[in-house]
Amino acid sequence: MMATIDNLKRLCIDHYFEEEIESAMDEYMHLVHSDDLLHATLAFRLMRESGHDVSADDILGRFTDSAGEFRLSLSKDVKGLLSLHDMSHLNMGEEASLYKAKEFSGKHLTSSIRYLERGLARYVRQSLDHPYHLSLTQYKARHHLSYLQSLPTRKTAMEELALAEFQLNKLMHQDELQEIRRWWVDQGLARELPAARNQVLKWYMWSMTVLQGSLFSIYRIELTKISSLIYVVDDIFDLVGTLEELSLFTETIKMWDVAAADSLPSCMRSCYKALYTVTNEIADMAEKEHGPNPISHLKKAWAVLFDGFLIEANWLATDQVPAAEDYLRNGVVTSGLPLASVHTFFLLGYDHAASNEAAVAKLIDDMPPGISGPAKILRLWDDLGSAKDEAQEGLDGSYRELYLMENPSCAPSEAEAHVRGLIAREWEELNRECFSRRTFSPSFTQACLNAARMVSVMYAYDQEKRLPVLEDYMRILLL
């Protein structure tokens, strides 16, 4: 039963069986105390994902020797190791056993690949390269289905439902993408700003990942519009405007008045009008569906983003070299994810007890971990040397390079390890938000988690500056 629940979740069709899964979880929770590695670790992961309070140290202690190390006999249990490896990524930074679990399972799974049957070897390699918790569920689902189809014992009904779900989602996503393309052409921003990026498909991939399911179709369309305008504004600041024009642009945004845009250059005026219109439409939609109109919060979020871009523009114009931490703090804002997250928050509706008006105001001022975590992960990933956007000039700075300047005795490889360590800590903080604090509604928390998962796909450039995982993701889900 637990394996069936796991397969339903991995195939992204568990939403059809929510009541049955909840009932089964209550009945099979005792498996977390099993002496079988696969049973115990699978039960732990499913329980933690479902919001149950379970201790990894208590569970894994049964699988270690007197020195606290995992027993070597476990190295031959490939399926148990796979489950242990999946479990290790649910670390909230407080369970020492999960660090050891990740190292032990990763080491022995890697060494086992050359001895395994081809289908299982491919599955293990994919699991190591794209850990389940850190990866896009829709992307993993297609690979998991291929693995199930290679097994001698088939779960035909489950496979058919998953295939039907893939096809329905693909048609829905293609329709949404066409609507966004029409909107983008109607705006005329690509003609007015030839230097800016024109990547409608890439922008849509963010929304398609963050908000999943047929219920959120209109929200994905609106959120893609916001994403496109974030990219356009970023390019205006990086490639088009003078410092004086950018300062005026920023002040005009704070006025939130279309008439005030008349003094702006034509391209900024067009961008402002599109931004103003889309944001107000989202505010009206949120008011109609959920109650209070959030336009004051959305205006403030745009002002914060523009202030962040202006700080970067001032650094560049005056040849200032910011401290690494100052750069990173501002870079979290200019990643654009906090702005997109605030729009997502209001589109979904803040019906959670902790999301009262005072808490909502802090979304922008204090940026809780659910919002700041994915944004910091994005900034750090983007700043790694292999993750430079192919369409940009690389003038925004880099935390890694600033860190090296501040630590001259540090080797580049050590700086990269430091950055990856920061990313790992942000994942632990995000896990605490998802599995322990639960500040926000489940739908918004899931959106934040999905945004973090998308980062490594969107910025994982190979040696040819291509994005192989993103291309595979597009092929599977859209093309």
UniProtKB/TrEMBL annotation:
Terpene synthase metal-binding domain mapped to chain residues: 186-429
SUPFAM superfamilies to which the protein is assigned, alphabetical: Terpenoid cyclases/Protein prenyltransferases, Terpenoid synthases
Keywords: Lyase, Magnesium, Metal-binding
MF annotations from Gene Ontology: lyase activity; metal ion binding
Domain named Terpene synthase N-terminal: residues: 2-127
Cofactor(s) it depends on: Mg(2+)
Pfam families per the UniProt record, alphabetical: Terpene_synth, Terpene_synth_C
Top-rank lineage group of the source organism: Eukaryota
Record has Magnesium as a keyword: yes
InterPro entries (UniProt xref): Isoprenoid_synthase_dom_sf, Terpene_cyclase-like_1_C, Terpene_synth_N, Terpene_synth_N_sf, Terpene_synthase-like, Terpene_synthase_metal-bd, Terpenoid_cyclase/PrenylTrfase
Protein name: Uncharacterized protein
